[in-house]
Structure to design on (608 residues):
């Protein structure tokens, strides 16, 4: 910037531009403003905006991704309503949602509340809780595939001390266990994030409220229920939102651990969208599926949006 | 700058005292619960580490415990057999490309929104909010076939373009809040000195808003390092796969050789954990703000 003035501010040029007045300069600065915005907007339209719109259009066609699509009206949609494998997959998404709305939420709240009550060692615990969240999903999956392996994992370790409860239990290959096992692994990865999120919110709660509760003789449970929970409600709503959306769109762990198997027992909507589009080359139908999924997640967003707004009014 | 970091440090030191004084807390129960939760979080990670040091024979007899002797040859073996040098080169390209691209795209756009007063500003900001909450399934199918048509499928640059586009909306909104806070008088002064918009952006504003850029870069880089869905969908050739995606292939190829696969896993995870221990606060702030991963 030190060199700039000598090259840019030639006195004659400045003298000449003066009469153009403010309006000219304002128009020029508008152009600059647009020029700064344009790359990001163009990229966004290319990767997200454009394909989103064409996804909606393609959902009414028999597009296979390559040849030009044929308009088929509502055929994809009537097929989708009757498609049992799609409802099977969506059903798993909702089971996932139920698990995630309870287990990690409870663990996150518990961990954060306990952390907020101690001083020594809090930093260490926070690091410990957060490390699983840092791990790449393929590594997390590998860790648990190893631990839950019937031959090289916890079952064999228990055998060494004479316990045979887990002999021949295939956590990811048993139809009745696979979905819960996958959700368990995902939960192990995720809950520490909630601890950190909730802890930050709890530290923001007005300290005088704790004092007041304590003077009233509140015990830890009362304090949690009447001071902490109301105090962190906006964060709680935020957590519910990302859990709901995350459960509807979950992809990584079912893909890595089971690929949707055995016999569709862990199939989820995102897996099905990708399979239908890229393996079966039924891109039009996959678009309809994706759109249905997006509408569902939009409903959740609006729902939690309302919840948040109501809180702000209170 | 020195005064700024000093101020940050001072605030950091002051923080614990501001915490709610857990009068009932500091009870043994808190520590007991926290220890249980901490073990639940960390023991599986230790199993990964322990088993990466064992021979495959030892895993059979001692599946979860401490290794009897440290066998570091697994790491060299995994590095070689998994072709991890190539994987890390691909990952480095993805991470650096994504960070630089996001800084450029989001930085310029946020600068415009925060300081240049472009037309239709509200509309653009609302558009960004909508885009952020859009699920990737909404556009991944047409995007895939568009990438086929453009010859960007199975290329790292094609993946970088996608990652930059995915990171930009959130980053614009985050950077905007940093940029709005910088006093307008500063760029007025620079403008009077004859600096143009680009010079003002890079020499005056950037140095003052680097924490925002650091957070954005961290989120974008972490995302590129660990992303799975787009990487497995848009890359076909093993030669081009980043280290995380290549690991998936490796782990299915050598599924019973837990010592080798776990060693590869440790190699992939260590950079993340080291970075986290150095930059805890920014990690947490960034990931909480983006709230997308997971």
């Amino acid at each position: 910037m030190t060199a700039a003035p000598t090259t840019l501010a030639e006195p004659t040029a400045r003298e000449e531009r003066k009469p153009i007045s403010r309006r000219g300069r304002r128009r020029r600065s508008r152009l600059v403003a647009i020029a700064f915005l344009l790359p990001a907007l163009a990229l966004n339209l290319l990767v997200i905006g454009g394909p989103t719109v064409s996804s909606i259009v393609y959902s009414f066609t028999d597009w296979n991704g390559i040849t030009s699509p044929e308009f088929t009206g509502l055929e994809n949609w009537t097929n989708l309503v009757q498609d049992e494998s799609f409802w099977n997959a969506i059903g798993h998404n909702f089971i996932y949602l139920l698990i995630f709305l309870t287990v990690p939420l409870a663990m996150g709240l518990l961990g954060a509340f306990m952390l907020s009550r101690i001083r020594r060692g809090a930093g260490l615990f926070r690091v410990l809780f957060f490390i699983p969240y840092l791990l790449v999903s393929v590594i997390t999956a590998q860790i648990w595939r190893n631990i839950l392996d019937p031959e090289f994992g916890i079952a064999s370790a228990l055998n060494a001390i004479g316990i045979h409860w887990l002999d021949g239990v295939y956590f990811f290959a048993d139809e009745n266990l696979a979905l819960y096992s996958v959700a368990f692994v995902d939960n192990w990865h995720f809950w520490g994030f909630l601890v950190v999120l909730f802890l930050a919110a709890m530290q923001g709660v007005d300290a005088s409220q704790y004092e007041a509760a304590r003077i009233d003789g509140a015990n830890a449970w009362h304090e949690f229920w009447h001071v902490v929970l109301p105090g962190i409600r906006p964060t709680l709503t935020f957590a519910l939102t990302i859990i709901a959306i995350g459960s509807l769109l979950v992809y990584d762990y079912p893909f890595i651990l089971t690929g949707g198997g055995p016999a569709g027992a862990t199939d989820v909507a995102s897996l099905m969208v990708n399979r239908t589009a890229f393996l079966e080359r039924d891109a039009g139908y996959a678009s309809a599926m994706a759109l249905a999924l997006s509408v569902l997640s939009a409903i959740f967003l609006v729902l939690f949006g309302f919840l948040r707004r109501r809180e702000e009014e209170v | 700058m020195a005064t700024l970091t000093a101020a940050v440090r001072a605030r950091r030191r002051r923080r614990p005292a501001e915490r709610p004084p857990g009068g009932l807390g500091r009870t043994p129960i808190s520590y007991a619960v926290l220890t249980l939760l901490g073990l639940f979080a960390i023991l599986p990670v230790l199993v990964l580490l322990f088993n990466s040091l064992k021979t495959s024979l030892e895993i059979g007899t001692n599946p979860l415990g401490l290794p009897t002797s440290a066998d570091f040859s697994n790491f060299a073996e995994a590095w070689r057999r998994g072709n991890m040098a190539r994987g890390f080169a691909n990952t480095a390209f993805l991470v650096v490309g994504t960070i630089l691209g996001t800084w450029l795209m989001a930085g310029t756009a946020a600068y415009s929104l925060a300081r240049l007063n472009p037309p239709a500003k509200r509309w653009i900001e609302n558009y960004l909010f909508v885009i952020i909450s859009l699920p990737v399934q909404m556009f991944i199918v047409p995007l895939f076939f568009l990438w086929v048509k453009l010859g960007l499928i199975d290329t790292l640059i094609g993946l970088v373009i996608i990652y930059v586009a995915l990171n930009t909306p959130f980053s614009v909104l985050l950077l905007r809040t940093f940029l709005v806070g910088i006093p307008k008088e500063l760029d007025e002064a620079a403008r009077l000195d004859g600096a143009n918009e680009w010079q003002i952006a890079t020499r005056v504003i950037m140095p003052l808003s680097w924490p925002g850029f650091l957070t954005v870069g961290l989120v974008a880089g972490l995302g590129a390092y660990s992303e799975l869905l787009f990487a497995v969908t848009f890359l076909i050739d093993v030669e081009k796969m980043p280290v995380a995606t290549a690991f998936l292939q490796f782990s299915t190829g050598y599924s019973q050789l837990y010592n080798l696969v776990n060693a590869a896993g440790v190699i992939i995870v260590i950079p993340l954990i080291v970075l986290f221990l150095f930059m805890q606060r920014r990690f947490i702030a960034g990931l909480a703000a983006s709230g997308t991963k997971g």
The mean pLDDT of chain A is 87. DSSP finds 15 helices and no strands in chain A. The radius of gyration of chain A is 27 Å.
